[in-house]
Amino acid sequence: MLLQVDHVFKSYRRGQQVLKDINLTVGNGELVGLVGESGSGKSTLAKVIMQLEKPNKGTVLFQNQAITKHNRTSFYERCQLIFQNATAALNPTWTVRELLREPLQHQLSVNDTYLQTMLEKVKLPADILLALPTELSGGERQRVNLLRSILIEPQLIVCDEIVSSLDRLIQREIIDLLVTLNKERDMAILFISHDLKAVSYLCDRIYVMKAGEIVDESYKEQNRFAFTDSYAQRLFQAIHHT
Ligand SMILES: Nc1ncnc2c1ncn2[C@@H]1O[C@H](COP(=O)(O)OP(=O)(O)OP(=O)(O)O)[C@@H](O)[C@H]1O
């Protein structure tokens, strides 16, 4: 198994249980969705997976090994987090070239030709290398952010609400780009979002979270998901009527 979240519990200082006995897996090259309404604990789970928050109980395993401070660096080479606020993720004083080169520091072979090939992949023009983040549109910034994370060729990317602030057309472009990356590189994706349409389109399997618990899970069959939990059913019923 590529990623395994095993019986994870988390509460913040105020004491409220934000994650209650979470079990979740992502297989090699798998497209997995995690949905749930605002406050259900999705971002907290992403942070626990990425070792940015410590669980009170439970373990996160990557390639069947618990992540510890000793193997964390190699975990980050294989698993990358991309989050919603692309503006905050990008240092405003760096050009796109500097931003893209930074994660590749120890790979001396990286030249502009390679970066340009990669820019083409995410449909960004070559002259964008000289631009500053403030000179880019929201969609362009998110693409730069995404490109930064995929340049090191991770086996898994955890996307936390990465398309929510973008308009539908650009959302679709970013999602299609994720599909391509998944197909071409067998890169697995854990796609966290409250946008059920986007998740249903992209993912092969979806987990539904409610108040800190995973209440249901379903595989896509004939382009549809079949949930058994009544809350999950109600959530997904709504999208068929919009
Ligand atoms: N750093 C923190 N300290 C204390 N409480 C927090 C912290 N981060 C999140 N919480 C609380 O944990 C709960 C879950 O928040 P979380 O951000 O994980 O939910 P979410 O499902 O990602 O929501 P959204 O879709 O709105 O981002 C909320 O009640 C929130 O107030």
Automatic annotation (TrEMBL):
CDD domains: ABC_NikE_OppD_transporters (cd03257)
Top-rank taxon, per record: Bacteria
Transmembrane residue ranges: none
UniProt GO MF annotations: ATP binding
One Pfam family it belongs to: ABC_tran
Keyword Nucleotide-binding tagged: yes
Keywords: ATP-binding, Nucleotide-binding, Transport
Coiled-coil region: none
Presence of the UniProt keyword DNA damage in the record: no
ABC transporter domain ranges (all copies): 3-236
Protein name: Dipeptide/oligopeptide/nickel ABC transporter ATP-binding protein
Organism: Lysinibacillus irui
